[in-house]
Amino acid sequence: MGRHYLKMKNDLPKRKHPRLKGYNYSQNGYYFVTMCAVHRRCVFGTIQSVGRGLAPAAQDDNRIVLSARGEIAKQQLAALEQRYDFVRVDRYVIMSNHIHMILVLEGKAGASPRPTLPDILCAYKSLTTRACNAVLNTPGEKIFQTSFYEKVIRNDEGYLQACQYISENPRKWKNDEYYK
């Protein structure tokens, strides 16, 4: 079993560790975050084209219609600021199968160590999943992929790019890498 197991283990794809080495993810800062649904399933809602009267819908007229899971995800985003007094959700968009947001960690840490960005996002995903499973009677259903993508926003240009990406995401849905 030993040699066979090692061969199988070595055949698995190597997972890239996405965090910056040595970076303190509990420090004040702006973070652009993307979380995906498991298998990129469209569980948070739909992106619909909206036409004007008899005119066909332009690509710029897409709007997001949240599902029950999407509404719960939105409620849990608002609850983050109540749960953590040093967290602010600056901007976000809930797409069909992923969520983009800019989270801001600000203020002083309390007496105990302050939760890190991964801690906060893990709690968000866990609480959102629990609420969805309770409300929708889907015990044990996994909603989010295990990991998430994050980028530390280091300057005004990076912040403006992240804001633009979030605001344009529904409009560019069919060209999005997460489009299914």
H/E series: HEEEHEEHEH
Compute the CA-based radius of gyration.
Answer: 19 Å
User: Overall 3D geometry?
Assistant: globular
Strand content: 15-25%
List the helices and strands and how they pair.
Layout: H1 2-11, E1 29-36, E2 45-49, E3 62-66, H2 68-83, E4 87-94, E5 98-105, H3 117-136, E6 149-153, H4 156-168
Describe the structure.
- The protein has 180 residues and is an alpha+beta fold.
- It has 4 helices and 6 strands, in the order H-E-E-E-H-E-E-H-E-H.
- The chain has a 4-stranded antiparallel beta sheet with strand order 4-5-1-6, sandwiched between helices. Strands 2-3 form a two-stranded antiparallel sheet.
- A hairpin with a 3-residue loop joins strand 4 and strand 5.
- Helix 2 packs across helix 3.
- The radius of gyration is 19 Å and the shape is globular.
- The N and C termini lie far apart (40 Å).
Task: Provide a brief overview of the structure.
It contains four helices and six strands. It has helices at 2-11, 68-83, 117-136, 156-168, and strands at 29-36, 45-49, 62-66, 87-94, 98-105, 149-153.
Task: Describe the structure using short key phrases.
alpha+beta; 4-stranded antiparallel beta sheet; 180 residues; single chain; globular; 33% helix; 22% strand
